[in-house]
């Protein structure tokens, strides 16, 4: 009977499915954030937000609490907003909050606005300017790009003004580093103070203690600051540096922090594994250390690693969803968590002002939004789409297999799989090698969904490079045989691999990779993609440019269910870039697909592709989705070192 009660309690705290969990995350996040963003967007935050302080408050909290509320709320909400608007109800809701957030940014940084924030008076503004900067870094397309030039200048001026504040010799160094990272990313004049950024990273690297944990300064503190600040800010700063690697190719610390990014990622991965294990079957966790009034913000690091799709290999993303759902539901639904007007109150479980330190006030509490970072993942990812499963403590206390834990040692984290090569990178070296591993055209013939028809004469092999050439037709050739039956205006080239890619129990992992120079002019449509042997979909596009410099990495589950990762490559035709997809079996139905460009992970999608054979195709199609008018001049698409590899199950 006792076992039945325990199991019933555990089942009740697991979300019923990913779609319902996502809806709950969205509704809870917007419930928390709405009072802040609604008030600030109307220049009423200082009028409407109550300022509750701890019994032992100090330092004029009413001078700093508003920037706390704004910076922290936006930092947690940013990844969700970065998904942008779409036709779904969630997408329409996002659009409302994006527009609200843009108004908030204007009001917070406009010296003439009633809600202009304090960025310089006291020490605390350094902290929350950093959270504001982190929000911009997490959502550049939605929170930075649409800003008017006037507002962008105000933001940069506000961030730079915090340089007058001297940081404490602890995690506060990362606040200076985060602000400089934002300036590095967004200031066209390139006026970032790299010494402030370098010092933050160098000291925290020095303060690393082992097993995925940093000291807060030189000492170890048994609290959640590795999650509140340290791990997330280190990674977000490093991601900016990686993004700027071309501009920083001569930087003194490039090998430490750009080339060495994986070292810090591995540490955060271990810490995320520890965090997941802290969540009890009932959705509680240890109330230890300072700043407990930040509530579920204690699990920002876990949510961030879920967002980055970099969880430990033995941790199912769906179990992290279930674990985060459990703590959010337990803590944020406690009576007294919100006041009558929807503002957060001081406390850990409900209203408990006595648990708040003297530096905590109403605005501080909005760090809890950072537990929702995983909302930045699209629906068609394992975090949201995979079936619910018990998280670690539910497994341990629920008569299930108890997963073992162990300390993290960098050398033990390295794993070199044994790949079988089925289509090798030398196959474009000669006609003989090509014919052994490739066929001309599409698997179904010469026509597809654009205005180009494929011809053998347009397929050229030279110096181990495949060249597909598109030229205007000299006389009418009629229409394409396939939908949408466009007029044939070009002769071009396509090839497909003879090997069919099938993720199965026998071959659970495939890696498809190649180097390409891809045209990006209007009306050009190069692609490197997998599509179903039997019917359509499935489809996965590893490279697809549609008339501009944006690469689309798409996963089609159904014609309507398509998830996309977009990456801008301004030199896609001028420079060789490597495009890769790794397909990994999850179970007899589901396969994950992880996309990379130049060995940098771009994202991971959750599919139903297991046991479904796929063709690998390289083609240069024209017009169609890439624009109605293609170029008159010759267009070329180049490929080299294309390979298909797989791992045989042991």
Throw out a few tags for this protein.
650 residues; alpha+beta; Glycosyltransferase; Jelly Rolls; ten-stranded mixed β-sheet; seven-stranded antiparallel β-sheet
Could you explain the architecture of this structure?
The protein is an alpha+beta fold and 650 residues long. It folds into 2 domains: 18-397, Glycosyltransferase (Alpha/alpha barrel); 419-647, Jelly Rolls, CATH 2.60.120.200. Helices cover 34% and strands 18% of the residues. The chain is built from 19 helices and 19 strands. The strands form 3 sheets. Strands 3, 5, 6, 7, 8, 10, 15, 16, 17 and 19 form a 10-stranded mixed β-sheet that branches. It has a 7-stranded antiparallel β-sheet with strand order 4-9-18-11-12-13-14. Strand 1 (208-210) and strand 2 (213-214) form a beta hairpin. Helix 4 (65-82) packs antiparallel against helix 5. The longest helix is centred in the first third of the chain and has 24 residues, at 18-41. The radius of gyration is 26 Å and the shape is globular. The two termini are 41 Å apart.
Please outline what is shown here.
The chain is of the alpha+beta class and 650 residues long. The chain has helices at residues 2-13, 18-41, 45-48, 65-82, 89-109, 124-138, 140-143, 149-161, 173-186, 194-206, 225-243, 254-257, 261-277, 300-307, 317-332, 382-385, 392-397, 410-413, 431-437, and strands at 208-210, 213-214, 420-423, 438-440, 452-454, 459-462, 465-472, 490-492, 494-497, 509-517, 524-532, 539-544, 550-556, 562-568, 577-585, 591-597, 600-607, 614-622, 635-647. Helix content is 34%, strand content 18%.
